[in-house]
# Entry
Amino acid sequence: MNRRNFTMIFLVTTLVYGSLVHIGHGYVLEGGRWSSANPVTYYNDRDSDGTLNKYVSYANALSSWSGVSSQVSWSGTRYGSQMAYLSWDNNPNVQWDGASQIIPSPSSNPYTSTNSYVNRYYTDGYADNERQSVMGHELGHVLGLDHYCCPAALMNTGTCGYQGRWCTYGVYTPQADEKNGVIAIYGS
Amino acid sequence: MPLLLFFAMTATLLLVGGSLSWGALNQTNSATQGNAICGSTPPSSELILDWAYRYGSIASMKTAADTIIVGQVLSEESFVSGHACTLIYTKYTVLVRTAMHGATAGSVISIVQTGGVLGASRQEARDDPLMSVGNVAVMFLHLNKQTGSYAILSGPEGRFPITNGLVYSLNVLYPDRPIDLPWRISGDPLDTFIAEI
# Structure
């Protein structure tokens, strides 16, 4: 095989492979969305026991998604339309540290409301950025992003252990591809 | 005599009425266990759960588990919790059929799973299908010493349902669901699976 044929085969193989595996598209969409994410109204259901410092991470997580798209903004209030409730549980009998409910379903269009939980049994012991990685991940679900297993991405399912978002990769903010995912849903 | 009869009937009515009210009260309490202020049944929803720790291999789970069993679900009871009162959990009573590690065969334990059915509301995690009475599975469990209840290690990772004596992983049984597991167990004989643990 001469050099020209080798180069041609190499280029064609690379192009075909690249088109098949969608290199660079590091996000998965839930399939649903808010009718307009400008704004999504959120209510931070803080604890009343004086541990508000735990919720600075939620403020940082909200900021980390702000500006990703001009079509996405957050508005904090107790009541409103397109409500994203940011709440918590403290349950030692389950092994999740974050959970989200998309109403009526993650693939529905439009979303009517969402409830996101952190499990303080775990997150109260986390470092600030680790806690932000959980809260930012839940906000990714709120905006319509699905899990992406298991690279250095905010929407990576797990926090620690096997290929964990935080403990393996140190990720606690949306990555470029995930921002592109939100832009794919709502526009730039 | 009529006066005595009147008192006897009144006492009977009070006793019966009282026990019925107490039963109703207990039923209400069981439906809202874990959070006394939860008043109404939360809406049906699909839950997206994010695991604090993923084990990545059966060997890792074997090392981490307090208890490894073949268990059969005997009963279930769902309740509402969460500060916003929108999460349903289910506590299962499970018979230990076979104990591979940390339990006694024939004993009964409690396992909590996120999701459940309360009235017309059904909540279920996409990657952690609800168990039901009669289900049999190999389970890798974590014991919460404060509550005495067990959790299945990282939900879908630590549960291997058994059907007709064959063991499956959840991603094989539910191919249409987004269950990210680094293995596929497609009907291994139970004895073989246990021997490999």
